[in-house]
Amino acid sequence: MSAEVLAGALTAEYAAIWAYGPIGVRLSGAERKAAAEAEAAHRSRRDALVVQLSTGGGTVPPDRAGYALPFPVTDRASALRLAVEVEERTAAFWRAALPASTGAERDRALAALTEYAVRATRWRRSAGITPLTVPFPGRPA
Amino acid sequence: MVLTCPVAMGRTTRLDGSSELSRRAVLRAGALLALGGAAVPLTSCGLLDRDEQPPQPDALTPLIDEALRLAAGLRAAATAHPELTDRLVPLAESHEAHAAELTRVVGGPTATPSGSAVSPSSAPSADRSATLTALRQSERAGRDAATRACATAPAERAALLGSVAAARATHLEALR
Which residues belong to any copy of the DUF4439 domain (chain A) (predicted)? Predict the structure, then answer.
């Protein structure tokens, strides 16, 4: 897979991990736990990408101190909406990795796309957003 | 006519070797007959029929058929359980969008599903929970098929197949 595609996915994972900070504090109970699990999944993919990029001799793009949110997160409803968006956006980067990869790399990219698409569906259910699904997860609108 | 004469010769001259020749003559005659028989239809239909030969089915054709089957199953279930319509119809529409997009990728009307009328693999159960269980089973099988197709697909098809696999996985979640 090209370093450019990997770096794009890594930057998306950085932003996702960052976003789950403000999301988590607005949630409680099972939803907060789900946010922590989602964040852990993004961390684990970030770590794998850093290893892959550095062993491949590529440049590892640096994490930033903060990322611009698409809208302010002020309550549970906006936190859930952002969680949906975070999963959709990261899914799009892994979808873009599919044509650029083969074999085990493609399997991993598809696993990420699928996992994030399913998580977006779960967040939509929590947020009361219908329909719960989109026809082409990860496809740019 | 041709066949009866050498057979008769073979019977009468069994030991002198000429029977072998006559048997070859029978075989040659038979071969010529076969060729002659086949030559007529070959020459008469060859040029005209060649264009109508169906091309090799595309690897995506089974996925298109499956998408339409999944859609039909969801629509039948929504008819049997109208209270589930809002949940099931968007999923059916997604499968139909997949079928349309996959057909476009395969290219041409030859890629349209083999069956003219697509029907669900089985009628929905009167029991709501059994219906949902059956739908989940179909979505799971569909997800696995699309995942396998994506794994080995050429680059230009990988992203679409990935979205189809991911969508079927989200359907599974939405049917919980």
Answer: 6-140
User: The domain that contains A34 carries what CATH number?
Assistant: 1.20.1260.10
The range of the structural domain enclosing residue A121 comes to 3-127
Q: Tell me the pLDDT tens digit for each residue of A67-94.
A: 999 999 999 999 999 999 999 999 999 9
Q: What average pLDDT does chain A have?
A: 96
Which residues of chain B have a CB within 8 Å of the CB of A113? 162-163, 165-166
Peptide bond into A131 cis (omega under 30): yes
From chain A, the residues in CB contact with B132 under 8 A are: none
CB pairs A-B closer than 8 Å: 96
Q: How far is CA B42 from CA B28, B37, B47, B112, in A?
A: 20, 9, 9, 30
pLDDT for B49 equals: 56
Only one residue has tokens 């109208």, namely: B82
Contact B151 A110 (CB under 8 A): yes
- Give the minimum alpha-carbon distance from A64 to chain B in angstroms, rounded to a whole number: 29
| CATH number 1.25.10 given to B61-174 | no
For residue A21, tell me if it sits in a domain.
yes
Chain B contact for A135 (CB, 8 A cutoff): yes
pLDDT score recorded for residue A3:
87
CA distance A65 to chain B (A): 32
Q: Pull the structure tokens for residue B118.
A: 């697509």
The complex scores an ipTM of: 0.96
Say if residues A22 and A69 touch (Cβ distance below 8 Å): yes
